[in-house]
Write a structure and sequence with these properties.
heterodimer, A: 397 residues, mainly alpha, extended, B: 480 residues, alpha/beta, ten-stranded mixed β-sheet, two-stranded antiparallel sheet, globular
Chain lengths: 397, 480
């Protein structure tokens, strides 16, 4: 099946083609002899066809609505019965009773798989331990797992995502292969679901796999996964993070540095040091911003000082932030100098950094407020006001 | 009587030309609607609750500044700001720009949000009228109010961008109410393709008739007036039909100024919103296309696939108060049409220019030939039909053909867009509302549409003559 843009073009072409044929048929069969003008006849034929299409569409919608509501009513009627049988299957002590419940579930599965599927989904979300294990076995035996595996390869995104979500609830790694495959799904929603499911397994190999995938994902997926990966940051700092900080893959390195900064956890990652000298400014800026969180054997103050005089605005903005965050009071003269920067974002950033540097920084700001330089005095005034009102975080650049 | 024969022939050929033109418009609209339908089916943008929650907590979601230009918006500004402050978004600030209002817009904001005059420094340098003062709240809320000399909407937006501190700038109208998750939804293209997405926009709907509580639409109803229902249908037609297809083709020339999102550096690089047109939203989008399509870099050959995206997101909803009288509607549509004509004229070199890819070869010509000139051609068709029938210059068959093509096709397109809404988005829960919209879709073709074609034709001539001015919008406020 053709997916994506090609599929949309194909379907559009087919619909337009069907319309053209329908118009031609209406024209030939009904209008060719009765309407004198060919163009007028074709226009009337289009109107007839389009009116019929609208009527069909609305009729179809009404029928679909009726069918859906009838199905929903049936499900509401059957669900309590199926749930009760599932609970009996899990809790009954008597073997005969368990077998009866199991047979009833199988029977219901043959008649209304949707009802059993929905009940199983709800139940799996609320049980654990041996109960989950037993129910997972049942799901496998009656064919639920096969159904979910098949659906994980469906053309419909929502169906795939839901199947992945359901497989992730099974015990004993039953759906793990499918989950790993789903990490390569073209749809981010499915990849996110699979990654979260694999993280829930708490297996080190899976966590590293998800991290590897996350470093190559767009921001949408990273933004969702970054919090899920946070508890595993310490472990990832061992091998996975240093591997991802390979300077020859700048995009991946930047993404990894971004995650380190987002986690705000102290991590032993010496691999950050060489990135401070990377030829690409965005990598240098990211590396600087991660400095407050990495344990690395280098002269931090010297690195930030170098960053403050970098050619790139992005690197200087990063450096002023880090200077303030690390409370590097020896950098006050450099920060004061940057209050005069042409890029006002750097001036404001430097002022905020000074505001974070206690007495020395405050005095510098007060000096600059009186200065006859519009940018420097305005930036200093803003930072002092923020400091006084306790709102430094609100408008940071 | 040779000249009479000549005149009759001229009439006939003019009518044939107009009918051909109207058929071409209808055919393109129809194909775009089918394309839009399938593109909408492919759209899987709806965020799951768990994803929303994760994004809401994520430190990686970029900071967004919502810029709200306000001129005499006293009646709606408090509801609007409250709605914006409580959006489900992890990192946003609201920048209201009081564009020299003559009413008590600023006073109401100062009183309600306990504002004080702050020393915040504008970090941008886009051209704008002088700022009189910047206010912030004594409460820990991310609200900034910029009070400036009157300069028009584009000028106010530029001032807001200068003061904004987010990497992303969202421009919205003061009379708009956003749904709680709408910002997160409209940001999705930026999150999904962070390197290429430079702008996005969402669906705007009519709030007339809906019940609003604490700045939120809590009950969706179709407008009870015919004018309101007509606009609701028109918005559906524009958003669900056209814009999805244009976005699919990466040739979207218009993101509604009522709810549009831009990467701040792209906005600044483009020089900010143009103060010389009343259609600053369209002009900005066309300018971005011109800049980004026209640029040569290592990865892109001129006329080849673009290295940027301007995306329409069919999910997020901004609710807006639509004009309630024919007069106000006419003024608004006239202004929009003039803005559209001005924008296209300023960038006329893009017309059929292969350097600009599908934008130059399809999007731009479509907007110019059909959207901008369409109402004038249609109006000419009505006049020629009337005069031609009276004088006998136009055969009744041709007159019937014209009416069928103009009114009949218009009717079918409106009904199709409504059917599309019912099939996909389904925001009107009650059958009564859908029936009301169907009725409006029928009635609009008999009078209202012709009046608006007249208004747009006048606006086109105003644009050609270089007439300036911004007609004020009357606000009634939302139903609470």
């Amino acid at each position: 099946m053709i997916r994506g843009r090609g599929g949309i073009w194909l379907k559009t072409g087919v619909v337009v083609g069907v319309y053209a044929v329908a118009i031609w048929i209406v024209y030939r069969q009904l209008l060719a002899g009765t309407v004198g003008s060919v163009v007028l006849a074709l226009v009337v034929a289009f109107i007839v066809v389009q009116s019929a299409a609208i009527a069909l569409l609305l009729g179809g919608l009404s029928v679909a609505k009726l069918v859906a509501s009838a199905r929903e009513r049936r499900m509401r009627r059957l669900e309590p019965i199926v749930r009760e049988r599932m609970v009996t299957f899990l809790t009954a002590d008597d073997g005969g009773e368990v077998e009866t419940a199991r047979a009833a579930i199988e029977q219901e599965w043959a008649r209304s798989p949707r009802v059993v599927e929905r009940c199983a989904d709800d139940l799996l979300a609320s049980i654990g331990g041996s109960e989950r294990s037993r129910f997972s076995s049942l799901a496998e035996e009656i064919g639920l797992v096969d159904r979910w595996v098949r659906r994980a390869r469906s053309a419909w995104v929502e169906r795939r995502r839901r199947a992945i979500s359901r497989l992730s609830q099974l015990d004993g790694g039953r759906g793990d292969d499918v989950l790993r495959d789903a990490l390569r799904d073209p749809e981010p929603a499915v990849r996110i679901e699979a990654a979260r499911a694999l993280l829930r397994s708490e297996k080190i190999a899976e966590i590293e796999r998800v991290f590897e995938v996350a470093t190559r994902e767009p921001l949408l997926v990273r933004a969702v996964l970054v919090e899920k990966l946070r508890p595993h940051a310490g472990h990832l700092a061992g091998q996975a993070i240093p591997r991802a900080l390979d300077p020859s893959d700048p995009r991946r390195a930047a993404v990894t540095l971004e995650m380190i900064e987002a986690w705000q956890k102290s991590l032993p990652v010496p691999a950050v040091a060489p990135l401070l000298r990377h030829p690409r400014p965005e990598i240098r800026a990211r590396a600087l911003r991660s400095l407050p969180y990495v344990l690395v054997d280098l002269d931090t103050e010297r690195e930030v000082r170098t960053g403050l005089s970098d050619r790139s605005d992005a690197v200087r903005i990063a450096a002023v932030r880090v200077a303030g965050k690390l409370g590097l009071e020896t950098l006050v003269p450099e920060l004061e100098r940057l209050l005069h920067a042409r890029d006002r974002r750097i001036a404001v950033g430097a002022a905020y950094a000074l505001a974070e540097l206690d007495e020395a920084g405050r005095e510098a700001l007060e000096r600059r407020v009186r200065e006859n330089h519009a940018t420097a005095s305005s930036a200093a005034l803003e930072a002092l006001e923020r400091l006084r009102t306790g709102r430094l975080a609100l408008a940071r650049v | 009587m040779e000249w009479l024969d000549l005149l009759a022939a001229a009439f006939r050929w003019a009518m044939i030309g107009i009918v051909g033109y109207m058929i071409a418009i209808a055919a393109v609209y129809f194909v775009m609607m089918v394309l839009g339908f399938f593109a909408l089916q492919r759209y899987h943008g709806r965020l799951l609750r768990s994803e929303r929650d994760a994004l809401f907590k994520s430190p990686l979601v970029p900071k967004t500044s919502i810029v709200v230009p306000a001129y005499n918006e006293s009646k709606v500004i408090l509801q609007s700001v409250k709605s914006l402050l409580t959006l489900h978004y992890p990192n946003h600030e609201v920048v209201v720009v009081n564009d020299g209002s003559r009413d008590d817009t600023l006073d109401r904001l100062v009183e309600e949000f306990r504002l004080f005059r702050s020393n915040r420094m504008p970090t941008g340098e886009l051209p704008s009228e002088p700022i009189r003062g910047i206010y912030e709240s004594r409460e820990p809320i991310p609200l900034v109010v910029v009070d400036k000399e009157n300069g028009g909407k584009a000028d106010a937006l530029n001032a807001g961008v200068n003061v904004a501190r987010g990497e992303i700038v969202t421009a919205i109208d003061a009379d708009s109410l956003l749904e709680p998750d709408s910002l997160l939804h409209v940001m999705k293209p930026f999150l999904g393709d962070e390197d290429r997405t430079i702008a996005s926009g969402g669906i705007v709907r009519i709030a007339n008739g809906c019940r609003v509580e604490h700045g939120r639409v809590v009950e969706v109803e179709a407008p009870d007036s015919l004018i309101g229902s007509f606009q609701a249908v028109e918005y559906l037609r524009a958003f669900l039909g056209g814009r999805i297809a244009y976005s699919f083709l990466n040739s979207l020339l218009l993101i509604s100024g009522a709810f549009s999102v831009f990467r701040r550096d792209a906005l600044v690089e483009a020089g900010g919103f143009s103060r010389e047109t009343v259609g600053e939203d369209m002009e900005m989008v066309v300018r971005l296309h011109r800049l980004w399509r026209g640029r040569r870099n290592g990865n892109e050959r001129v006329g080849g696939p673009p290295s940027y995206r301007i995306v329409f997101v069919p999910e997020p909803v901004s609710w807006t108060e639509a004009p309630r009288t024919l007069r106000a509607l006419g003024r608004q549509r006239g202004r929009w049409h003039r803005g559209q004509a001005e924008s296209l004229w300023r960038h006329r070199w893009m017309f059929l220019n292969p350097r600009y890819g599908v934008v130059g070869m399809f999007g731009f010509p479509y907007f110019l030939l059909f959207e901008t000139l369409g109402p004038t051609v249609e109006l000419a068709g009505y006049l020629l039909t009337g005069v031609g029938l009276l004088t006998g210059f136009v055969a009744p068959t041709l007159a019937v053909l014209f009416l069928l093509v103009s009114v009949g096709f218009g009717l079918l397109l409106s009904l199709s867009s409504l059917a599309l809404e019912e099939l996909t988005v389904r925001r009107y829960p009650r059958a009564r509302d859908v029936a009301r919209l169907f009725w409006a879709a029928v009635v609009e073709n008999f009078g209202l549409r012709q009046i608006l074609a007249g208004v747009r034709t006048k606006a086109l001539f105003d644009a050609i003559r270089g007439r300036e001015g911004w007609a004020e919008t009357e606000r009634v406020g939302f139903r609470t």
